[in-house]
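writing this on my phone so excuse typos. first protein, seq and then structure
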Amino acid sequence: MKNRAIASAFVIAVACGAIGHAQTGALKVLGSNGFRAVMDELMPRCEKTIGRRVATEFGTSTSLLQRINGGEAFDVAVSTTEAMDDLVKSGKVTAATRTALGRSGIGVGARAGAGKPDIKTVESLKRALVSAKSITYAGDGASRPHIESMFEALGITKEMKAKTILEQGSVRSAARVASGDAELLITLVSEILPAPGVEFVAPLPDRFQHYVSFAAATGKGSASADASTKVIACLSGPQTGPTLKAKGMER
């Protein structure tokens, strides 16, 4: 009996220790590249709010969706609204916590100091794309279908395919431009502005502009629901307006 009591006490102690660690350890956040600049700016404030460290891992929304569907544990997910729809349907996130964060349009970037082409009108954009030696964008990025639809509408699909460098994620695409391997980068404005060695040229003309929206939700299996909810509130509150604007995003 005495041994059983000791064993029971040990099990309880281990369980309490695990709960305590879950409540005080680092909060795991999976974030989309498109919202990274905003998260990098706001997360220190969020950590102060919850009194815990936040461990954030970034990737394209497509890659994050694959990781989550593969069984990876997390406390908060930040992704495109389309990817979030899938997570809600599959029960990977708590639907009631889903919160809109902001949106970003698509723009063009060029290597810093290399000069900026004129893309203000449909005609000048077409000239800039056709005359560019090479372009790059993320093959798994949310903006890809809209970029390729634009090429088709401009009648330059064949020309662009021959000089397009597809990369995994906007970070690698931006690095291609910064190094001079590619002349122009086409991706979300929120991914161009923080890219080292890359200068923002301009947003796409209204005819071809498309906005990608982002949302956050807590993981269904998170043991830190309260802290996770507070982080989402920190990323979505009215005080985030100036940060969103500075990072190329809007409500």
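second protein below, same order as before
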Amino acid sequence: MIQALVIKPYQIPSESMEPTLDPGQRVLVNRFGYRFGDPSVGDVVVFHPPVGAVPGERGDTSEPLGGACGVDKESTEACPEPHDEEASTNFIKRIVAGPGDRLRIEGGIPIVNGEAAQEDFIVPCRGGGGCEFPGEIEIPPDHYFMMGDNRGHSDDSRFWGPVPRDWIIGEAFFTYWPVNRVGLL
């Protein structure tokens, strides 16, 4: 009952959130907190991505990771809208922009409403796809733009779009494994 309503454990599946969270690390997710308030930029959240974000979710394994935007878009902009169907898989990422924010990405750094995010906790982009999206998009109402802290190795909203608030499960707030990483996030 507690897991279903209040707090749920979650294991980190990939390197997309390094150095904040390592693969195999375990966190607790507060499923209750967003019933009384909205998510905020900077929150690390567990959520369901759009179906197109998960290879093979629809039985089609030919679609490459990251090729899942819900609309046709310019190559210079991040995905502005997701597919309208949520996946059954859980992802964990950081919220970098919220409803109504204007966003572009330079060197893997989100520029939100004209100001570069101050993110001393990330692994910076080292070139390659996903590091530069200078075309500005606006985050739709009730949607949040997610990015992994390991910017060069994260499949996130840059490729499959902002996530509807209803798809957010909760905020990761505490790590309990391994023992040397126990503490608040």
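The two ends are 24 Å apart (CA to CA). thats all i got for now
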